[in-house]
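Private note to self, pasted from the team thread so I don't lose it. Backbone tokens:
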């Protein structure tokens, strides 16, 4: 039996809009199957959320938590390095049938919210009439946890859908002791823990609820709690086996969240709790408007009821997740973030309405619906303008992840003529490549290979690997270069994203490709391999092979040596006479991910010092190099020229990459004998 009586139907004559709303509410209240009346509302809400997401944030890259969920989910595992597997499984199954596009991911997130609200509706039905159930749902619609925040489908998102449903089946199991409810409580509990170990907070809350209920003796004397526990363990058994076999990686990751400095953990906990409570503000204000003059009386009864013993289990149901989360910080120094509390308040509106003994009428619901419409309709209409504003303000914060993935795929296919199978590098860019690339490559974590057990090093070497790094990520570039080896191919690109005719600030990206085994590239031009046959009169040399140089070459001619830096061209030139003057011109284009100096040195007969040394500051943009000098000779024997390039300090210099502007030349040398 509901704890709050269902109000009688109301059909007062009102204006057209209010009359239509009132009629729908009255029909909902009097319906024999009110769930069917709720479905159109949930479908409408899903459409509104998805539309908002597409226009307001769809111009940018998906959050890397979302692309990570897909990168994991496409490789079905019983667990993953950071978290249990459910969110990844959901993403993997969803995109097995749906297109890999941002709108599709936002649709998945919106459907997850709808499932959560349906769970709240069912849970509220234990205590409230139909109008009270709808009031509970509408309260949560006005909180970011069940709207904007949950559009980021990460490991926290499925908690908002599993927690209400588990609580519903758990309470029904306590009331009835029926096996069916107990089985579903265990099933949902297992799925909640397979989402994130933070669900232990919910288990602790429900255990306290069970201990505080008047019928606790009958419940624990029945088979219900033991059926629930057995089913939950059965659901968890494969993951438990994986955890033991894999040496507890996800548990180690969870424990790592307790290793923060005390001051940092305290500041994060305060911010999160204040932010979580503050997130209820708009919904609380809507309740105040809806209940009008009753609001203060409801608040007083709610506060008084909080300290009544008969309501203790209800108060724990509402406040337990928050209190136990704070206890986790206090006792084990757990670093609480705002995302932890996303599912924590699912029972808050239900318990408030019950403890305050609120009389939820059609008039109250009509006002509450108008509050929802007054907030969501302008938000939905403004979503394209919000997206435009966010794009213009984002500046360098935009990673052109979609464009990077497409370019990585194009480079790979054009170079090797085969699909891109494996990708690594900076995590947000690499996981985005698995999502946006038409080849859907697998993600390999080079610095922690055990974290990506679905691919071995041997497989990556056999089929090749694309490593994607921001130009500023030196550690990523070094790691990728080491794995790619001497046969690695490097490309630099400046890529940008686009929205409504606008272009973001280009971001410099480094692509490093380890070729597949048995790949045989065309041989480079003779001039690029070293010294050519000795010409006379005039010599023109060009290097068409991209080079990545990390060797240092001193800017001081006295300290520059013929073995420093890297040779990019060389030739032996025969003067026409013993009094020739050789005119030498060197052209090139260089790029550096970090501020550095590109040093060019020309050595004769492998002797120091160089006959010419030029240094040019470079960094995050292609720089043209063009210098000339004259070298008098007094012999008719071949003169051995060696042209070298290097960085003035430890770092990376890219030479001759196809991504440079078209008017920048390949490294080339022209030697002319004036005689």
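Design output:
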């Amino acid at each position: 039996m509901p704890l709050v009586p269902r109000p009688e139907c109301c059909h007062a004559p009102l204006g057209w809009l209010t009359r239509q709303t009132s009629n729908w509410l009255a029909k909902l209240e009097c319906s024999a199957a009110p769930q069917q009346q709720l479905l159109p509302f949930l479908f409408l809400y899903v459409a509104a959320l998805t539309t908002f997401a597409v226009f307001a944030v769809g111009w940018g890259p998906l959050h890397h938590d979302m692309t990570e969920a897909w990168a994991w989910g496409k490789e079905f595992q019983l667990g993953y390095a950071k978290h249990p597997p459910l969110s990844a499984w959901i993403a993997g199954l969803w995109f097995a049938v749906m297109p890999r596009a941002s709108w599709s991911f936002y649709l998945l997130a919106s459907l997850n919210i709808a499932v959560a609200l349906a769970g709240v509706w069912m849970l509220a039905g234990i205590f409230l009439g139909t109008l009270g159930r709808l009031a509970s749902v509408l309260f949560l619609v006005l909180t970011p946890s069940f709207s904007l925040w949950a559009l980021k489908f990460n490991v926290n998102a499925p908690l908002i859908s599993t927690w209400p449903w588990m609580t519903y089946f758990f309470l029904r199991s306590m009331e009835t002791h029926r096996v069916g409810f107990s089985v579903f409580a265990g099933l949902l509990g297992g799925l909640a823990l397979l989402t994130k170990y933070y669900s232990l907070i919910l288990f602790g809350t429900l255990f306290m609820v069970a201990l505080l209920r008047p019928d606790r003796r009958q419940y624990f004397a029945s088979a219900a709690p033991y059926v629930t526990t057995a089913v939950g363990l059965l659901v968890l058994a494969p993951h438990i086996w994986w955890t033991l076999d894999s040496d507890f990686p996800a548990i180690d990751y969870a424990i790592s969240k307790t290793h923060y400095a005390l001051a940092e953990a305290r500041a994060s906990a305060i911010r999160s709790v204040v932010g979580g409570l503050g997130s209820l503000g708009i919904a609380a204000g809507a309740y105040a408007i809806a209940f009008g003059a009753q609001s203060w009386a409801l608040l007083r009864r709610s506060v008084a009821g909080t300290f009544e013993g008969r309501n203790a289990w209800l108060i724990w149901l509402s406040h337990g997740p928050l209190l136990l989360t704070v206890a986790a910080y206090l006792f084990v120094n757990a670093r609480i973030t705002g995302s932890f509390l996303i599912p924590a308040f699912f029972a808050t509106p239900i318990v408030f309405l019950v403890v305050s003994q609120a009389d939820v009428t059609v008039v109250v619901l009509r006002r509450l619906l108008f509050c929802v419409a007054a907030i969501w309709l302008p938000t939905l209409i403004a979503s394209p303008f919000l997206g435009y504003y966010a794009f213009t303000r984002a500046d360098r914060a935009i990673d052109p992840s979609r464009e990077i993935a497409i370019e990585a795929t194009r480079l790979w296919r054009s170079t090797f003529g085969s699909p891109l199978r494996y990708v690594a590098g900076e995590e947000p860019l690499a996981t985005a490549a698995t999502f946006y690339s038409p080849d859907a490559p697998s993600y390999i974590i080079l610095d922690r290979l055990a974290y990506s057990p679905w691919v071995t090093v041997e497989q990556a070497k056999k089929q090749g690997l694309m490593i994607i790094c921001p130009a500023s990520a030196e550690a990523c570039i070094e790691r990728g270069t080491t794995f790619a080896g001497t046969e690695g191919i490097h490309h630099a690109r400046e890529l940008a994203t686009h929205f409504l005719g606008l272009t973001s600030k280009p971001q410099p990206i480094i692509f490093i490709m380890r070729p597949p085994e048995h790949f045989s590239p065309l041989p480079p031009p003779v001039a690029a391999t070293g010294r050519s046959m000795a010409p006379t009169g005039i010599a023109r040399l060009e290097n068409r092979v991209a080079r990545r140089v990390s060797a240092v070459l001193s800017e001081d001619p006295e300290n520059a040596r013929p073995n420093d830096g890297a040779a990019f061209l060389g030739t032996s030139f025969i003067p026409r006479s013993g009094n020739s003057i050789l005119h030498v011109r060197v052209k090139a284009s260089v790029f550096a991910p970090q501020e550095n100096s590109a040093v060019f040195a020309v050595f004769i007969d492998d002797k120091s010092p160089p006959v010419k040394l030029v240094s040019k500051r470079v960094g995050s943009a292609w720089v043209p190099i063009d210098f000339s000098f004259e070298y008098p000779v007094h012999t008719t024997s071949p003169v051995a020229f060696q042209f070298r390039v290097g960085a003035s300090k430890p770092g990376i210099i890219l030479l001759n990459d196809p991504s440079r502007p078209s008017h920048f030349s390949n490294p080339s040398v022209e030697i002319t004998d004036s005689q």
